[in-house]
């Protein structure tokens, strides 16, 4: 599935050098890499701005959460329950879908673009 993530110059430079995206330390659903289904939504939801990342993401078996109160998750926790990622169809309540990936090897970067 092709998904989008937005970050700042420092984040884009780090991702470009490492050729991978590592999970953050915290977020609504725990420390992961947060993706949107469109670049426009990714830009709207982003904390840091300036660079758009387009990636092929292997979401695998998704844990569907219907509310921002679902809690915080980790890769290990999800894996033990048989899940690979989190799918929040309504995001944090704004109605915009989010997908959270916790393992870098599920993400293949297609492009990094300054906007």
Describe this structure in words.
The chain is α+β, with helices and mostly antiparallel strands. Helix content is about 20%, strand content about 30%. The strands form 2 sheets. The chain has a 4-stranded mixed sheet, with no helix packed on it. Strand 4, helix 3 (about 75-80) and strand 5 (about 85-90) form a beta-alpha-beta unit. It is globular and about 35 Å long. The mean pLDDT is about 95.
Characteristics:
115 residues; alpha+beta; 4-stranded mixed sheet; 3-stranded antiparallel sheet; 7 strands; 20% helix
Main β sheet profile: 4 strands, mixed
Radius of gyration: 13 Å
Structural class: alpha+beta
Q: Trace the largest sheet across and list its strands.
A: 2-6-5-4
Helix content: 10-25%
How far is the first residue's CA from the last residue's CA?
22 Å
**How would you spell out the order of helices and strands?**
EHEHEEHEEE
Number of helices: 3
Poorly predicted ranges: none
Average pLDDT taken over every residue = 94
Shape: globular
Say how many strands there are: 7
User: How much strand content do the residues show?
Assistant: 25-35%
Secondary structure topology:
Layout: E1 2-7, H1 9-18, E2 33-35, H2 39-45, E3 51-57, E4 62-64, H3 75-80, E5 85-88, E6 98-101, E7 107-114
Parallel strand pairs: 4-5
Antiparallel strand pairs: 1-3, 2-6, 3-7, 5-6
Give a quick precis of the structure.
With 115 residues, this protein is α+β, with helices and mostly antiparallel strands. It has helices spanning 9-18, 39-45, 75-80, and strands at 2-7, 33-35, 51-57, 62-64, 85-88, 98-101, 107-114.
